[in-house]
What we know:
Elements: H1 10-25, H2 35-42, H3 46-49, H4 56-81, H5 85-102, H6 105-114, H7 121-146, H8 156-177, H9 182-198
Helix pairs in contact: 1-2, 1-4, 1-6, 4-5, 4-7, 5-7, 5-8, 5-9, 7-8, 8-9
Amino acid sequence: MDAPAKYLSADERRAVTVEAVVELAASGNPSxxxxxxxxxxxxxxxxxxxxxxxxxxxxxxxVMEWVAGKLLARIDRAIxxxxxxxxxxxxxxxxxxxFAVQHPGVPxxxxxxxxxxxxxxxxxLAQTLMRQYGERLHALVQQAxxxxxxxxxxxxxxxxxxxxxxxxxxxxxxxxxxxVRQMKEQAPAVYALFARALAANASQPPKAAAV
Length: 211
């Protein structure tokens, strides 16, 4: 990352700091990111960094705010542009995958915050993001059911969990394999399986054997 211009407004400096953390998280464990590393990545001193953030926790909080704002905004645009709720579900899935490809540090940050034992402000923001994301999915599935494109007996909450879990599975496999772009390559096939499970005209799955 190139060193930022010498004179930046407070908002600009905060934005550059968030960008630095996301970039650092793309290549390492977010919990290992220090304020020293952030300042070095930005080309500033720690003193300059702390003029805009009182501590590392405040930096992580700003990062989570950025992640939530950016991801939900993209999702909302994808929903608004889709012709039907059914089409919107696929658009949201692909939008989320594309966001993760463009910002591979974001999934690492989210997983890291959600796994923290303490109830920190960044963790609460991550939890709020997941809740708001789920609410959008619930609405889309219910609308698609009303239009007859999703089976009426599909559990809405389970569907949202499977949707998000499918994206997270793609992300985890890509991170483990060290190839972030494979998410985009594998996403269509993964979504096709998800959609087949939801479709109103899909054949009924076999009943589980009695135990």
